[in-house]
Amino acid sequence: MLEQLAARVSPRALRAPARLDPVAREIEEYFAGRRSQFDVALDFRLSQGFRRNVLGRLCEIGYGQTASYAAVAAAAGNPKAVRAVGSACATNPLPIVVPCHRVVRSDGSIGQYAGGLEAKRTLLALEAAA
User: Could you tell me which CATH class the domain 44-130 is placed in?
Assistant: First the structure.
């Protein structure tokens, strides 16, 4: 992941990996059930336009909550862009921190997840257990 970040943003990411320690600590706390929101600064430069807007809306879905693709599309300003929300989730450069796993289908079924359906189920179960 660091190599991808270096290629897309800056090779400095490889020279200073300790800068990611706060993020790693918060993710560890999340998986240990001790953190329900992230305090790290987010940089959405890897996303543009509607996708960037969707990522911002994803951060508004509370821990242990879900929202439908349609609801996220409406909140992002284009109620008809349900598939575009799915695409934004699939290309989310900051998964878990930007909680695309909390987006489900309108009928309540789980939907898709770039990390795989089992990972999405696991994340939703982790949050529901809190």
Answer: mainly alpha
The region of weakest confidence among 47-51, 86-90, 121-125 is 47-51
Active site residue 100: yes
Query: In three state form, how does the secondary structure of 18-74 look?
Result: HHHHHHHHHHHHHHCCCCCCCCCCCCCCCCCHHHHHHHHHHCCCCCCCCEEHHHHHH
Q: What is the pLDDT of residues 37-54, one digit of tens each?
A: 999 988 888 788 999 999
Q: Environment class of residue 57 by beta-carbon count within 10 Å: exposed (0-12), middle (13-18) or buried (19+)? A: buried
What are the structural domain ranges in the chain? 1-41, 44-130
Query: Which of 73, 100, 103, 124 is the catalytic position?
Result: 100
Averaged pLDDT of the chain? 90
Neighbour count for residue 18 (Cβ, 10 Å)? 8
